[in-house]
Amino acid sequence: MQLGFAMLCAGSVRAKNTMNIMLTNVLDAACGGISYYVFGFAFAFGQGGKPNGFIGHANWGLQNVPNASFDYSFFLFQWAFAIAAAGITSGSIAERTQFVAYLVYSSVLTGFVYPIVSHWLWSTDGWLSATKSVGPGGLLFGSGAIDFAGSGVVHMVGGLAGFWGAFIEGPRIGRFDKSGNSMNFRGHSATLVVLGTFLLWFGWYGFNPGSFLKILVPYEGVKGNWSGVGRTAVTTTLAGSTAGVTTLFGKRLLDGHWNVLDVCNGVLGGFAAITASCAVVSPWASIICGFGAAWVLIGFNRLAARFHYDDPLEAAQLHAGCGAWGLLFVGLFAEKNYVQQIYGGNADRPFGLFMGGGGRLLAAQIVQILAITGWVTVTMGPLFLALHRFRLLRISSEDEIAGMDLTRHGGTAYIHNDGSEQLVHFTTKGDKNHNGKIPI
Questions:
Q1: Range of the domain at 26
Q2: N or C: which end of the chain has fewer CB within 10 A?
Q3: CA pair distance 110, 41, nearest whole angstrom
Q4: pTM for the structure as a whole
Q5: What is the torsion angle, in degrees rounded to the nearest 10, for the CA atoms of residue 55, residue 28, residue 154 and residue 200?
């Protein structure tokens, strides 16, 4: 997944900022690994003696791991989710952000902001969790909020953090002209964008089906988690495929061209949307999810251009917008038997509104959207404002025009003439054209 983000980001920016964006993706993983080890995992899943629905408070630095609840492998799996959220944010603020700002926000996001949300939804004592089994209080509205693999926890958190960063530092120089018209800043390599998309596509099969954690768990008869894993892979595939095709024809209708870059973002938007419901909806429903995600992405991109919001990777529109749609989709189309198989509970446990399950699950999903939006806004918004106030957020206009690879990272990613071209003298028989000098 991280390699996919790196290639997608590299292809979506101009060539003069390629080294910068790839370095930030590497450091999202590295800095995120340290901060998630020291603080993040404890905030997300540490329960201690007194379970807390808001924040974890045990297992600092993986103390007392392994234990009855999780092993080292669980930490590694959750770290991958955490750095994915940071990678999403780096795309929104690409091409004009100081390097120190990347280090600060990445550490805070993976070490504190993201873990709190994952505690709410994925810990057994989280106040929003659909698997809440310990601590005071019961399931929210009798169902809890369902986010199976992170449409809200990962994609909304990363997308909203990126939104506030990009909004506070403003658009790239020249992105909008004096009349307010949008100028086309295309990424330098469609090849890298397509490569990154397929790497992410493959990685999503680890995120979504992998979120079952255990495969040998029987339900009834010949059914078990192994059936859910396969179904989840199918729903993921269909949602992404439908979103990509819908985006292709939608953009053709609106803009009059077939654009592979739009299709790639459409595919990823479909994946971001289905991630919440991938395990609790049928394959036919995932097609509806992907179709809706494509139009959510197109609509938010239109709004972004109208309000002069600049996001080089459409990351906030894609991950926050499609992620929110995915959370709502759970409340509409989650099926009763799938919800009970995965989350257990009584026979009257709420499920999707359109599937006859009433509106309680949908209400929990709406609360989840509002809670995540509020939390990221009150944490990452002030952080980016502070970086802006202390002039640590945006690079100078001179550096931005020249490109950060040249001014901040010692050289460009693509070297066409490195100064080594020269004539080498050697003796050959019958070589009259070059006089014994061959350029290399």
A1: 1-214+221-409
A2: C
A3: 9
A4: 0.92
A5: -150
